[in-house]
Amino acid sequence: MALLEVERAGKYYNDTRALHDVSFKVKKGEFVSVIGRSGAGKSTLLRCINRMIDLTSGTVVFDGYDMHRLPKGELRHARKRIGMIFQHYNLVNRQTVLENVLHGRLGYKNDIQGILGMYSEDEKRQAVGIIDKLGLSDEMYRRCDALSGGQKQRVGIARALVQDPRLILCDEPIASLDPGSAKVIMDHLRGISRDLGISVLVNLHQVDVAVKYSDRVIGVRGGELVFDGEPERLKKRTVYEIYGTEDGELVGD
Ligand SMILES: Nc1ncnc2c1ncn2[C@@H]1O[C@H](COP(=O)(O)OP(=O)(O)OP(=O)(O)O)[C@@H](O)[C@H]1O
Ligand SMILES: [Mg+2]
């Protein structure tokens, strides 16, 4: 059974059609990239999965949860198992790396525990272990605004991992990074899916990166799914269909 099933998803923002009849599945541990030009609907698709925004039609079933029909309490449960990684990191700049990573545990807390920052010894040990694996031990007590972009994104990954997620959604995780830092981030994400069995769904602007790292690539154009297959099947003609570029070059938007 698939971990994630998106079925006939549709989304309108007032009169703007952002998604239309999008269906696909993601298996446990699978690494799937979503490519498409600017405005194609990639971010909308990701945000509908954890219900940061509501679908206009269709369903999202994650780990057995019918995400858009769940009452609030259960939605909270489901969301605990979905990590999010953003282009601009979304860290609390004046807090340390360790504090930011521990925020990944907030979904497991009641409000008071969360406000008081009450984390168990186990949670702290787990956070320290993950920070170590991401090569950030020396940065543990540094404020996040003192870090490089690549380091910040590794904090973002660590924060997602302490959630003990089954799925990690990444919205252009490398768009603000230099090629070297981008490779480190992509290698970590690939390792997470392969070694930890966590599914990764990542929006990317670089077709070559999607081809190199993914088990499967999904192409969206004008809110519609126009390709879903293994990267080897992504021929020049298909890239042309997705991006609508004149020469079908392997380029972004
Ligand atoms: N909050 C919003 N209100 C109204 N329209 C929106 C909103 N967010 C997105 N849209 C529109 O929905 C469509 C899809 O946008 P979306 O941000 O999902 O595209 P994207 O593929 O992520 O683009 P990019 O590569 O630039 O990030 C676009 O036409 C966009 O203008
Ligand atoms: Mg986007």
Q: State the major sheet.
A: 6 strands, mixed
The beta-strand count equals 10
Instruction: State the separation between the terminal residues, measured CA to CA.
Output: 34 Å
**Can you tell me the CATH topology of the largest domain?**
Rossmann fold
Helix fraction by DSSP (H/I, runs of at least 4): 25-40%
Architecture of the largest domain, according to CATH?
3-Layer(aba) Sandwich
- Please report which band the strand proportion falls in: under 5%, 5-15%, 15-25%, 25-35%, 35-45% or over 45%: 15-25%
Shape: globular
The neighbouring-strand order within the major sheet is 6-7-8-3-9-10
What descriptors fit this protein?
253 residues, alpha/beta, Rossmann fold, 2 domains, 6-stranded mixed beta sheet, 4-stranded antiparallel beta sheet, 9 helices, 10 strands, 35% helix, globular, binds adenosine-5'-triphosphate, binds magnesium ion
Molecular structure report:
The chain has two domains: 169 residues, 3-Layer(aba) Sandwich (Rossmann fold); 70 residues, no CATH class. The chain starts with a strand and ends in a 10-residue tail after the last helix. The chain contains nine helices and ten strands. The C terminus is likely disordered. Helix 6 packs parallel to helix 7. The strands form two sheets. A six-stranded mixed beta sheet has the order 6-7-8-3-9-10, sandwiched between helices. With 253 residues, it is an alpha/beta fold. It binds adenosine-5'-triphosphate (ATP) and magnesium ion (MG). The site of adenosine-5'-triphosphate has 11 residues, from strand 2 and helix 1.
